[in-house]
Amino acid sequence: MKSVAAIGTIAICLAVNGYGAVGDRLAELQDMRLSSQGWHATNGVLQGESPEYSSLPETARDGCVDDSWTYHTIHPVVLWRYALAGAPAWTDYTVAVVVKIEKPAPLNGFRGGETFFNYQWGREAIGSDAAIVVRWQDPDNNYMVRLSSGYGHVELWKTHGGVVRVKAHPFEPGKDYQLRVTVSGPWIVVSVDGKELIRYFDRVEPVLQGQAGVAVRESRVSFADFRVERAAAMRDAPPAYRPAFHRQTWVGKDYIFDGDEPVAWFCWNPGEGLELREMKLRAGLMPMVMPCAGIQSYDLQPTGDLAVVKTGKTFEFHSYEKSKDESFDNRAVWVLSATPGGDYIWDKRVKFSILKPGKTPVWPQIDDPYFYQMVSPPSNKLPKCRSLPNSCIVESTNQTLIAFPNLNHHSFEVACADAQVVRPGGCAVPTIDGWGVALQVCEDTPLRFNIGFCHWGLDMHVCPVDPKPAGAQGYEGHIRYLLWDKARVNAALAAGRLPVPNRKPPTELFNHAEPVNRMDSVSPAISGETTQFWVHWHPIDFATDMRKSADREAVRL
């Protein structure tokens, strides 16, 4: 076999733009640049192999418990092995290659979406035998057409989008498959053995240029007859968006799909009840939030009732949950709809009922959503996939627009609680890389709610402000999740102001080091009237900086 180095050193002497006529050969096997070990070439065939996660020595997994938190967050293990060709400025081209899965990827492990602070949602996905990579700028900016014999599908994954298309296909180990992937402007077209399976127009921040290549993950795969050719520009008008919501089992989970795109899945979390995971707020945009189906509680039974009552242009489901001691229950009705542009509106009505008076001392939270990509990863730099710091915007009861960096809940729930009450019809809006996850407290909700973040800044508590009336047997609430685009978020951040603390927070509430995300600690440094927080690697002077509304950018980290 030819060595890895031998096929990784041949330069590609092609013009970056205007590279020849349609059909001109741009790159072949000998032009591949190999990004990692595990590649061998012989007789025009490139073979790639990636180790299985379970086979890695314990030191590679940081000595942590082998669970999804470790796998994606504490010590993320990159298992993809890439072989690339071309230049970063390549635009429209077709990749053609014959793929043979020699050793399939295992289905044991963790798939993106099982834990909520995963910066590149879904990239490290179990069961992915191989991928055709297009528009590659770097690991955080590209498209991957991924094949799975274990799950029997071909899927289109996009940086900042997650999985945007899934099509069933019965891939078998040991069999040759001819794949063609064409990228032209915002279009991506995928065919297997001459049959077109995916034709996708990327409406949300498409990646329009980059290299081409192949990849393997926890598998051994051979690639033959690899070539890249110039593709004609596609002038087709984008198809009109039409929602087509339905329930579908995929990768072993109970999903909500919009056409061929997964937009959420139902997860019965032991002790915390039914949750929605990988919930998208726009077709083609990455998942950002993970809400509770009903109220938030750590005392719910591990199962309950779930009924899907409507599919098609809208999707409606009802849920019922009961506490472990049967002292309370909650019923929820969700309606998912879409705007003409493909923005999703998730409407939630919940009824919380006390079944045994005296057993529930306080009103439970109406929700405690977790957020994907909310905090810094365990390294000393942000990944390229997240270029903006996170903030929060609150449309408060005093008609003031509040904007502040995501720190921890004590600094705002304790010291600035009055400013955190959301006005009827208003929104609390955490930002994720410039987008806004807007949680709207609908005007017909009788209770008022305030919001605050936990120490780690990954979840947002939505707590009733009003005290529980004597003899009350429960409450009803109505909230919505919707998307604020980057322009609206920027305008709100520019117009908002930082709240002025009404008192210094008690120091005993700090000194918290989250045992899971160890890099996210908060500790005090008291000096006179100054309380300082260390959030990630950034010092925030609470008593001083939080009053500098004119210097908001410095405070937002």
Task: Provide key terms for this protein.
6 helices; about 550 residues; disordered C terminus; 8-stranded antiparallel β-sheet; single chain; Jelly Rolls
Reported by name, the CATH topology of one domain is Jelly Rolls
Please count the beta strands (DSSP E, at least 2 residues each). 37
**Rg calc:** 25 Å
CATH architecture of one domain: Sandwich
By CATH, the superfamily of one domain comes out as Exo-inulinase, domain 1
Portion of residues in beta strands equals: 35-45%
Percent of residues in helices: under 10%
CATH class category name of one domain: Mainly Beta
Q: Which stretches of 5+ consecutive residues score pLDDT under 50? A: 1-19, 376-382, 407-416, 502-557
Measured between the Cα atoms of the first and last residue, the distance is 51 Å
Average pLDDT = 80
- Principal-axes geometry comes out as elongated
Structural class: mainly beta
Q: Order of strands side by side in the largest beta sheet?
A: 21-22-23-24-33-30-29-26-27
Largest sheet: 9 strands, antiparallel
Q: How many helix segments?
A: 6
Give a description of the structure.
The protein has 557 residues and is mainly beta. Among the domains are: 4-230, Sandwich (Jelly Rolls); 240-339, no CATH class; 507-555, no CATH class. Helices cover 6% and strands 41% of the residues. The protein contains six helices and 37 strands. A hairpin with a 6-residue loop joins β31 (449-453) and β32 (460-464). Residues 1-19, 376-382, 407-416 and 502-557 have low confidence and may be disordered.
